[in-house]
Write a structure and sequence with these properties.
By secondary structure, the protein is α+β, with helices and mostly antiparallel strands. The protein has a domain of 131 residues: Roll (Nuclear Transport Factor 2, Chain: A). It has a four-stranded antiparallel beta sheet, covered by helices on one side. A hairpin with a 5-residue loop joins strand 1 and strand 2. The chain is elongated. The chain starts with 20 loop residues before the first helix and ends in a 44-residue tail after the last strand. Keywords: Membrane, Transmembrane, Transmembrane helix.
Length: 203
């Protein structure tokens, strides 16, 4: 009442500066689902097909890096089981000589055979010959190429090992084990190889 007069009072809906509860819950749910989707998309990195030529090239390069590093336990695990012919790790290691010192290896080219589960991989190799009592302290480096056979087993490429002269070294006598540890591990690898197939080109 103002100066004896009554003023009408209008009542309307209550105004609020906060959004409805349902709207808030819906927004939170959408944000949570979006976060889960983005997290899943980022964590799922593209994987290389282990049977692809690209995977074969990478595996061949890895194999030879282990050979150069004299890590024969790892190369043994990458050999095709049938090509090892039941040989033990110690027999496998004694099959390598010490005449060649491999320095570098890289994949030059690869070619799938008629059977896509087998392939040739041509490696570009840099090495030097090391002879006992040699006068040259630093023998010259030689560049060459050799071809390895690879075979696909259970969607993974395996190196086909070639035994020098086709023979598996005899098992070491247990009584002599430890008497000459230098025989357990070669000083340098000798690589199996064969002439490059005709028409072999970069792929």
């Amino acid at each position: 009442m103002v100066n004896g007069f009554s003023l009408p009072v209008f009542k309307g809906p209550r105004l609020s500066f906060f959004p409805p509860r349902n709207f808030v819950m819906g927004g939170l749910l959408f944000s949570a689902l979006l976060s889960i989707f983005l997290l899943f998309a980022c964590s799922k990195e593209p994987r290389l097909d282990t049977s692809s030529p690209e995977a074969l090239s990478a595996r061949a390069a890895e194999y030879w890096q282990h050979r150069i590093s004299l890590d024969f336990e790892k190369t043994y695990a990458m050999e095709e089981p049938e090509s090892l012919r039941g040989a033990s790790l110690s027999q496998y290691m004694r099959s390598f000589g010490s005449g060649a010192k491999w320095k570098e290896a890289s994949v030059h080219s690869l070619k799938l055979k008629e059977d896509p589960s087998t392939a040739y991989v041509t490696m570009k190799i840099r090495y030097s010959w090391v002879f006992p009592n040699a006068r040259e302290a630093d023998p010259p480096t030689i560049e060459s190429q050799l071809v390895d056979n690879w075979i696909l087993r259970d969607n993974l490429w395996y190196h086909v090992f070639k035994w020098p002269f086709g023979n598996i070294p005899e098992a070491q006598d247990p009584s002599s084990k430890g008497s000459d540890k230098s025989n357990d591990k070669p000083s340098n690898p000798i690589a199996p190889g064969e002439p490059a197939p005709e028409g072999d080109g970069d792929k």
